[in-house]
Design brief:
Layout lengths: L5 H5 L6 E10 L2 E11 L4 E5 L6 H8 L7 E6 L7 H4 L2 E4 L11 H9 L8 H7 L15 H14 L4 E5 L7 H16 L3 E5 L3 H7 L2 E6 L2 E7 H6 L4 E7 L8 E7 L2 E6 L2 H10 L4 E8 L2 H10 L1
Parallel strand pairs: 3-7, 3-8, 5-6, 6-7
Antiparallel strand pairs: 1-2, 1-4, 8-9, 10-12, 10-13, 11-12
Amino acid sequence: MTATDPIEAATMTAPLVRASRVSRRYGAILALDEVSLDIHAGELVGLLGPNGAGKSTLINIFTGLRRPEAGSVELGGGDPRDRATRQIMGVTPQQTALPEQWRVAELVDFVAAHYPSPLDRSEVLARFDLQDLRDRQIGGLSGGQQRRLAVALAFTGRPQVVFLDEPTTGLDVEARHALWQGIRAYHADGGTVLLTSHYLEEIEALARRVVVLHRGRVIADAPLTDVRGLIGLKRVSLTCATLPALPGVAGIEHDGDRTHLLTADADELVRDLTASGADFHDLEVSAASLEDAFLAITAR
């Protein structure tokens, strides 16, 4: 008998989240254009796209906050607007307004009371590094602390699936990494996540599957490594005071004294660079990043 990969096994079952040819307009703007997407139990999916691509609209439809004008959406086989169905999900929208007079522990308890089998309050606070804030009034928290609390609330009910729309916006690096650990812990326990982020390194750090939306349509849906490989480029990074014109360069980025060149043939580029006589050092060759892939895909 051949062992089956857990993700592959999950795709053999009915999807936990399904959008079928979903469209949605806001006036003259077509936010979603016949989007079809299946997410199975146990997946951690990163949803990428430029501003206005339709990411938040899709999450709002998945969570029952908006209705599709065409097509259909299912959550656990049911309608996401039904109360019983909503109990299997948690959500952190892009913008939240928390009750300022409440204390952190009180709000966690309030949210937990709406679910049949929530996490223990102490586990929620520990998982998202909120123990020291448990007795603080929410109005006295910083914006970053309130954002951490908003993300923690999405996991409080022990949901089957969590939707996170830009969960770490406004957080410093340390707080962002702490939230990543909480998301990873939930996923390791079998939880399902759909995550949008402007931080491409966040998608790279968490997701195994990436869906790219552009102008309301899905233009890529593949494992993370495959999305990087869609453009077939390498990144050549170096420090060089005066860089000569070189053939085969698909893109150039400057970061301080470092220059990053995108090319389909890194070996040939390095040979041309050496032959040019340019004075360079600290040469590095690496695979194209998710940001490189994202920019190249949307440009197409």
